[in-house]
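Exercise (ungraded).
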Amino acid sequence: MSRQSLSKAHAKITELSWEPTFATPAKKFGTDYTFDKSPKKDPLKQILRSYFPMEEEKDNRVFGAMDGAIRGNMFRQVQERWMEWQKLFLSIIPFPEISAARAMPLAIDAVPNPQIHNGLAVQMIDEVRHSTIQMNLKRLYMNHYIDPAGFDISEKAFANSYCGTIGRQFGEGFITGDAITAANVYLTVVAETAFTNTLFVAMPSEAAANGDYLLPTVFHSVQSDESRHISNGYSILLMALADEDNRQLLERDLRYAWWNNHCVVDAAIGTFIEYGTKDRRKERDSYAEMWRRWIYDDYYRSYLMPLEKYGLVIPHDLVEKAWDRIYNQHYVHRVAQFFATGWPVNYWRIDPMTDVDFEWFEDKYPGWYDQFGAWWEAYNRLAYPGRNKPIAFESVGYEYPCRCWTCMVPCLIREDLVVDKVDGEWRSYCSETCHWTDAVAFRPRYEGRDTPSMGRLTGKREWETLYDGWDLADIVSDLGYVRDDGKTVVGQPHLHLDDPKKLWTTDDFRGIEFRSPKVLLNQMSDSEREAWAAAYRANPNRTPATV
Amino acid sequence: MSTPSKERKHQAPASFPKPEFTGAEAGMLEFPSSNSRSYNYFTPQKMRATVYEDVTTDVQPDPERYLTQGWIYGFARGPGGYPHEWTAVKSGNWHAFLDPNEEWEQTIYRNNSNVVRQIELNLQNAKDAGAYAHWSRSWTKFVAENVGAWMHAEHGLGMHVFVSAQRSAPTNMINNAIAVNSAHRLRFAQDLALYNLDLSDSLEVFDGKVHRDAWNNNPSWQGVRENVERLTAVEDWAEAVFATNVVFEPLVGVLFRSDLMMQIAARNGDYITPTLIGAGENDYNRDLRYTRALFSLLGHDERHGAANRSTMQGWLDKWTPVSAHAAHELQPIWSQPSERTVTFADSWAAATDDFKTLVAEFGLTPAKEL
Ligand SMILES: [Fe+2]
Ligand SMILES: [Fe+2]
Ligand SMILES: [Zn+2]
């Protein structure tokens, strides 16, 4: 189509909407934002007549690559260390994708602009595409990778695991609460515009370096739809900015969305990239380096900062704080260590780190070895059953952390722990901002104004509560993370499948009692709790070299 | 990404790790679960799960299945996730519904691409052959006004009934089927809009603007517009799907598309419009398959069947008069073309016959006024 006929076509499609007079579309999802004074801003346009064949073409390339990978025996060259983490990643990601589809009517309800409605409806179809194409990729992994355990229980494990819940925010956050908070600020302005770069660009390049060239094919294909989504979000954001009354809400939501995305996405993707790779070339960028370029420079400096000209206060402090956590406070490394500590209740295996890894980490993150080296050596030493319990239940100088009630990642930057009585119970938070999110932001009043549409934090947010006082063997059976011999567990702290004696079974877990930090916290007296919190903050949680 | 318009460039790494043999291929070792190569958390309908079941089932979790911590975000005035209370109908097992069309990424794009390619080809051929040249004035006007008005109905339902409803059902299988339904509607509306543009370009006498006036003001179309607008106002997702696909579509949609347009176009020298309308009709037939499967399941639910039938009967009794009224308001357009091969009574009889057969499948009784 010529440029001229294309713009005529767009104009024609705009004529499809009309001002209703008999009844107006149901407002199912409220928002506290107003758009009455907003001039209409249009996103990138897409005509379905060209959209469907364009996407079909992309899909054909993906399916072609899948056939090629199987014929070319790709899995003979795939790193198990990498593929194991895909059991976690690919159990999580189809849900955020489909949630993005489900989020579209929230935004359509809230924003009076037919051009944006069209863009959002196409995005809905894209997101159905993304979710199902990713499920299909996982299915291929399950069929062709050496160890299908963990892939075979994927969506169940996602729904009942302590990691799945962390990831689930990146999804539930799109579809609940204030429609603009959820479907615009959290989903598009932050998750899609900032964090899909780490998800869909950094991850795939790491996959390729580990012998998996299918993940890049699928995820680049997914990412290629993203610029339209980002454009939808940007148009809504500009419309929201036109009304002074929305400023306060936008500033609140940017703080919440930025911080939650950082807590959740950097935890997960950072771990997959840094601990899932075998590529330890010095010229390979670390997650921190990628983050600095794509999130700090490209997103923060080129997208967020220019919004200041509209008078919006953007969360400079939280961007700097996130960077500080990633680079100086070893956030990603602490998360990876926590996941590895939790291996008995994982549905993937975690390869121990070796001297080659140590050296790379020390080079990229000075001070890494001091903090984590001895612990990973202990992890290695305790990798097989028989002589010892899983590392979490041996004394290696690692104190099991309590959960952040808000982001659900544990409170790993220990000096930042916040403990407060909220809604009648004692809760722990990983940071000031996570505390603020629960205690201040997700409430029906905010800074003196009513916010009746704002969402709520709900559910049994501390996973450990569900299994407080249980025997570890029973927990793993209850979760269903047991292999088809009825006793070998799915998660293992190593990659050796060749020797049955190295594989842990539920028998090895019998007699180990599991406790919930939150239950314990709520049993403490005031003075006990204060002493505990002070000790928690002061404990560097560093495994001594002599253990 | 930075600003939306700016495309980023990714540099290829300076070097790349050498591929090495890892032996991580299926079958290279035997160990517990080494052959566990199917998603084992749901029971497939047949012996082996279809790709559709694999890529759809349980992607939307359910507290009644594995979601042990429950939904972790809620609305100000109610729980988050996908509350069963968002519709009046109930099910002993919402997960029993599977889309007979087995729609997933591949089918969605193949199917819709085939349709748009076919349409584009037809329109190109028509243009090249000068197929519109011998259209009579009255037929040209008829298409401009009425086919033009109809595209609004398709668009309104696609955008504000189906896109909206796919947020709300208790399972991924239902929501995806509804999402695909909305894609069909929106695409068909655009197909008609672009056809309208083509006709404006090809025929000097074709009024490419009149469709808006017909839709907004022409008395014949006000019943249809009222029906569509009222459908968009329904909060209960199942009621909205039911009232659209089970009531409005047979009594108004099929009536207009199949029982009028498809019958008279050729007699008026128009061989092109039926190919477009036929594509829309085909979409509806496809969407009717999942609709049938869904409401049959609900109507025959072991525990809730009787209550559901009574709820659905209520919807039927509420919406039949609205759509019957819309259909009858439309009656004057039957006498507009110079070649009148069907009467409104014929068309209405055909439409209501199909409608009665459909509602009987769900164990419902059509309203007396039919
Ligand atoms: Fe997506
Ligand atoms: Fe997206
Ligand atoms: Zn937190």
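Further reading is listed at the end of the chapter. For now, observe: The beta strands of chain A are 418-422, 425-429, 445-446, 449-450, 456-457. Residues 114-144 of chain A form the longest helix (31 residues).
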